[in-house]
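> @MW can you paste both from yesterday?
MW: sure, first one:
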Amino acid sequence: MSGATMRRVVVVGNGIAGLTAADTLRETGFDGELTIVGDEPHPAYSRPALSKSVLLDGADMTSHELPPAGHGAAELLGVRATGLDLDRRLVALDDGNALPYDRVVLATGSRARRLSGLPGELTLRGLDDARRLRGRLASRPSVVVVGGGPLGMEIASGCLAAGCRVTLVSQGTPLTARLGPYLARVLVTAARERGLTLVETGPVRVEGAGESARAVLDDGTVHEADLLVSAVGDIPHTQWLADTVPVAASGAIPVDVRGLVRPDVAAVGDLAAFPAPDGPRRLPLWSSAIEQAKTAARALVHGQDAPPLRLQPYFWTEQFGLRLTAVGLLPPEGEPAYADGGPGGEPALMRWSRADGTGAAVALNYRIPVPRLRRLTRADS
């Protein structure tokens, strides 16, 4: 199919990946019929804000809002895609309708992994989750957070800032898997100084009944609180695709270097697995979803003439009075060299180097343009 016969594009998913894909299609010159399907009733919003400023916003709670979309697409919000027919080029919807397409972008993201089916186990994935949690924090309940990744730590930080007594249960030292032991130690120290009770353990299960949930450690120790929130990872939302698109063992959709499953189907964001030296890998970061979507949208229009994804990972977190911004491959190994500041203090600007000339650069409460932070990852910087 040539670009001249590309009249209808359907984007399934109204998160940042779907929004960026739609914007890029227009920027690339596609002026045909564009439809976005989103299972949430809300316009696209900033998901990273949900575990940061949204928990502490004023009454209007606007920090998650994005500028109005300029792609001019028909938006079907509060509608869920239930199937994909590759032969007939149709996206089936839960309202009984089906959308024809010439190209389709799969951007349905992921859902929170849960440790139980209890309604008392709260998770934070979408805007409605954030609003519910924020409402519960108003009475300053005691809180148990299960999960020591960035999301769990950000939730714990927000709960502490709301005046709650917070215990975080983590398998091993929090943040180590994502940030490495050096940076994890910096953030965990700040968390303890702010009053976080940290429990390092092995496997955890969630038990209870109804709205009551408690964390049970592998040694039988029980941690109870007024509120339990789990943040133990996510699961790519690919069930609706059934057997129509190949899915890896991780639940993600393997794509090529341009984000394509086949010439008329792209997959981007949390549900996509891009080629990596050790096999297809998901890159579930806000910034990578944006870059994937740009690359895949251009490939839908221009095919193999479009440039492949060239991604330098970008990650940031705000927690316990610290803002950490990182560019490059994480987790870094060993201790950093300091471009500014020094151990035990902030602001600080750090870098790690690898034998192959790549590296990572990290700013801790340090204002620096991202392009300069990117340059610091290079061996010749």
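MW: second:
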Amino acid sequence: MFHSPRSAPKTALKDTRTAIVTGVSGGIGTIVAKALLDEGYHVVGLSRTHPTITHDSFTFISFDASQAVELEQSCENIASYFASVSVLVHCAAIIAPANVETMGADDVLRQISINLTMPAVLTSKLLSSMGKGSRIVFVNSMAAAMPLAGSSIYSATKAGLRNFALSLSQEVHHRGISVSSIFPGAVLTEMLRQEMASGGSVLNFVSCPATPHAVAREIVSLINKPKQERFFPALDGIFGGLCMLMPALLRISMPVLTYFGKRGYARAIRKNIFQNKV
């Protein structure tokens, strides 16, 4: 369903810089959308529920990222209203922690659909509307470089998303389109709260989770000054890169990481970090 405070015809918006943000009802997506509105973009937000954004230059499209038919319809709606797309930011993601032996088929398919299929299909459908100077940003995860027990499907989708972005970058470089990926560690969002309530890894708390505002600032920075990949914090990226080169390193380091993760999680619980809306 297409919701807009001011639904203008395509011709009226031909000179407007348009930014598409998925997962716009989540903490990071909402903040990114508001920041881009402040920078003068017309922002089209995609998510299942309407975010807390009221702005004349904000258009909301309600859709379930796991449903291909809704995705196709959303792309048609965007194309019918906006002559071009300047920025595409993929924030939508879900995680359903489970051991491989016990995970349900529905959870597997939904994670793949939202974390990997949706950004690939949406990007494919919108590329013809993107020209020189356009930006595409994928909000990835450290899980792409550091796969953990209990998060096999989430890690697999994020690793796939990383390779998709790298391949896409090669395809569109000659058109002047920049493709960036950001790999945050744990972020203090509702998604993290739900993950931990479902048995998520204490390794999310080896270091203090980043705030959604901090990650959103990095995303906007990538839009304004593109870089192919950015790990946040950078030190995590160094360790993650080493683990990719030497998979045994993660296994060897696990006892130490688990020790600090348990301490960090206990500290987070004492501080009631999940008691406030994140």
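> thanks! The mean pLDDT is 88.
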